[in-house]
Amino acid sequence: MKNNKLLFFSVAGLLMILVSCNTQKKKESTDDPEGFQYAEMKSQQEAMEELIYAFPSPGDMLGRFDELGMTYRKELLNPASSAQHYISSKAKAMNLGVYIADLAFLVMFSRISESADYLEATMMLSSDLNISNQEFEFLIEGAKNNMNNRDSIVAFSNELFYSIVEFFENNQQNKVIALIASGAYIEAMHIVFQSVNEYSPDNELIRQLTELQYPMKNLLDHAKKVTDDPDVDEIIEEISSIMDTFNQLETMEGETKITQDEPGVISLTGSDREEMDERSFNELKRKVEDFRTSIVKIQAE
């Protein structure tokens, strides 16, 4: 069932929260005068862990397809030069997400020299959105100093996404999180869908595409918490349409097995999974492409 797979994105976070709650109770039971401060810190940490598990980075999403026959195609990316032409805060936020996904795609294929332009694009849009704190600046400097190191840029792409999400979470700007995550996830889905030239039920890449519905479901749930905002309402409409197609996929039954490979690491295998037929594939591909086109489009000044 779908609930089994949704558990995949939250089980580790829930376990960490349970452990943290037990630790918090022990701390509060002492006479430590800093107990309240400690409890508040743990609460903030738990909230961020929940957010991270709900929002996998676009690099994590694309990484699922790394060894499934994808090839590098530059034309799939949003040109880095477009960053300077986005005017509205909505366009800046959504394309910041797009460029983070593009950066992740570039480093998957070790296109390090081209990654520099996309790093500049993310820095420009981040600055325009007033994302600034000591940790974020340190992250950017580390990336600039390690542009020839593929592993460093892979880590940077993921950490950049989480750092930005954390920044807006701390500033209680759920709207901006929804915009950035929408851009990032739609770009990741665009890249994967466009990497399939022809539908085949035996294509493992297409089979894995069904898994992308779960971060999209989390994104939709998050966006619905933002009320009375026309920008987010547009996102909700687009993602709801995509989810409607995902929800129509035929479910193939399977046995769910939960194992603990090592202390603290829980694995779910063999759960029910959805099969994507040709009609659903083409419909999803069209919806993703239409939404992506509207995101990256440069509006007339």
Could you describe the 3D structure shown?
This protein has 13 helices and 4 strands. The chain is mainly α and 301 residues long. The chain has one domain. It has a two-stranded antiparallel sheet with strand order 1-4. The protein has a two-stranded antiparallel sheet with strand order 2-3. The longest helix is centred in the middle third of the chain and has 21 residues. The chain is globular. The protein starts with a helix and ends in a 5-residue tail after the last helix. The N terminus is likely disordered.
How many extended strands? 4
Radius of gyration: 20 Å
Compute the number of helices: 13
Q: What would you call the quaternary organization? A: single chain
- Proportion in helices: 55-70%
Strand order of the largest sheet: 1-4
Indicate the overall shape: globular
Q: Give the H and E element order.
A: HHHHHHHHHHHHEEEEH
Question: Stretches where pLDDT falls below 50 for ≥5 residues?
Answer: 1-42
Average per-residue pLDDT, rounded, comes to 77
Amino- and carboxy-terminal Cα gap? 48 Å
Question: Which structural class fits the helix and strand makeup?
Answer: mainly alpha
Beta-strand share of residues: 5-15%
Biggest sheet architecture: 2 strands, antiparallel
Number of domains: 1
